[in-house]
Design a protein that fits this description.
Number of domains: 2
Structural class: alpha/beta
CATH architecture of the largest domain: Alpha-Beta Barrel
Helix content: 25-40%
Distance between the termini: 26 Å
């Protein structure tokens, strides 16, 4: 199934609307910022953008109005790192509930990670995910594929078949490919595929991280919890930069968390290498000091790092070293997540809080402008996922109306019970943040209307 077919099939399944007139919002896209109205046709495309629009001529004189005064109107967000758990662990999340959380977070497209049960390493499982997304998803659900069969690091998955079925991101996320030669083969093979793809790496040298449960540093020593050194991440980043140079193939680095890893990617980009990188909200908002509570909600992989690492991640976002913000949304049921720290699984929720955390921690302090922040949330990840022909588009006539409208000043308190996910493992419970989605439009149809999911 091709990307365009997937989008077309989805468009046929959403209910028709009478079109919309979005008035008075600050329109932010790759061209910059301007206050303008946006007219959306019933067919889900944008009719016009500007002031004093002639709605009668556009055939939209009777279209309902969304008052976006005080709000930002932007291309819908794209998350290239979402764990939906389906198939196999639907008790923690499903494609329906995860995509609902995504829509409430302003996302119009998400890429499902392959660490499901079974692994997404065959066309049959890819189609299962895509079909479930079309049937029940509140956003455009794309599927990644694993680099190796079963994510076991021994043999390559049938990448050509998966790419032909619509996969554009390959990753063994949750574990990095440990075998240097196998990773080289994967990059060389992927470079010859007719479809443009990217290999995304969870950078972790297991020989160094094995047995660790948090960042190795002052807090792991104080708490008596075995640590994972920063070098476990940095050595694999170094290796894959070298392999990208050797093969000429694109490599995307997932959830960078250390100052050393950011510096390596910055240097690789300066040398013109074909690498991109993402950071998660929790890696630019939380440090390993949070683990002092021994609360497993703060257990994640890569682990929460030092304040110096957090500062380096923010600097990497600011100077363009880090291209995208990805949630690494990783739901777990309470009975599993509330195990003792050394037995609890890694992972945190992220889809519904990423926007607010970015505004609160990056935009308001002046680290990123609103346009720069939107680039990290929308069109940059869309380009990495090879879906920028559909998502993250400039807001202009004839573009698909995949849009988010959010109030950047709206203050709210994170309440785990109020989140749409089936799980509640957010590390931000009780935190006051600013920035809330009011509307999300997919093909011009609201999946979120006035802050409420429409199904």
């Amino acid at each position: 199934m091709s990307e365009q077919l997937n989008a077309t099939d989805r468009k046929a399944t959403v209910s028709e609307s009478a079109g919309w007139i979005i008035t008075g919002g600050l329109v932010v896209d790759r061209t910059g910022e301007r206050v303008a109205d946006v007219a959306v046709r019933p067919d889900g495309t944008i009719a016009a953008v500007g002031t004093a629009l002639d709605l009668k001529t556009l055939g939209l004189a009777d279209a309902p109005v969304i008052d976006a005064a005080g709000c930002v109107v932007a291309p819908g967000f794209v998350d290239i790192h979402t764990h939906l758990r389906e198939p196999g662990r639907e008790e923690a999340e499903t494609i329906e509930t995860g995509s609902r959380a995504a829509a409430l977070g302003g996302y119009t497209a998400i890429v499902a990670m392959p660490n499901t049960e079974p692994t997404i390493d065959s066309v049959a499982v890819v189609r299962q995910v895509l079909d479930a997304g079309i049937a029940a998803g509140l956003c455009d659900v794309r599927s990644s594929g694993s680099i190796t069969i079963g994510r076991e690091g021994d043999a390559l998955s049938p990448m050509a078949e998966l790419a032909a079925a619509g996969v554009r991101i390959f990753t063994d996320d949750g574990c990095g490919v440990q075998d240097d030669r196998l990773m080289r083969r994967a990059l060389e093979y992927a470079s010859g595929l007719p479809e443009p793809v990217v290999l995304a790496q969870h950078c972790e040298v297991e020989a160094l991280s094995q047995g660790g449960h948090m960042h190795e540093g002052e807090w792991s020593s104080r708490l008596g919890i075995p640590g994972i050194p920063a070098e476990a991440e940095e050595l694999m980043v170094f290796r894959d930069i070298a392999l990208s140079r050797l093969t000429g193939m694109a490599v995307h680095f997932q959830h960078l968390s250390t100052a050393g890893a950011v510096a390596l990617v910055r240097d690789a980009k300066a040398r013109g290498l074909n690498v991109t990188a993402e950071a998660t909200p929790h890696h630019f908002t939380l440090t390993h000091a949070e683990v002092a509570s021994y609360d497993p909600v703060f257990k994640v992989n890569p682990p929460l790092r030092s304040a110096e690492d957090v500062a380096a991640v923010k600097a990497g976002l600011a100077d363009g070293t880090i291209d995208a913000i990805a949630t690494d949304h990783a739901p777990h049921t309470s009975d599993v997540k509330e195990a003792p720290f050394d037995h609890a699984p890694c992972g945190m929720l992220g889809l519904e809080t990423a926007l607010a955390l970015g505004i609160t921690e990056l935009v308001e302090p002046g680290i990123l402008t609103m346009t720069e922040f939107m680039a990290k949330m929308s069109w940059n990840p869309a380009a990495i996922a090879r879906i920028d022909d559909i998502h993250g588009r400039t807001i202009e006539a004839e573009a698909p109306a995949h849009l988010v409208i959010f109030d950047p000043a709206l203050e709210w308190t994170v309440d785990p019970a109020a989140l749409a996910s089936k799980s509640d493992n957010t590390p931000y419970a009780g935190r006051v943040v600013r920035g809330k989605v009011r509307y999300t439009l997919l093909c011009g149809v609201p999946t979120v209307f006035d802050g409420e999911a429409q199904r």
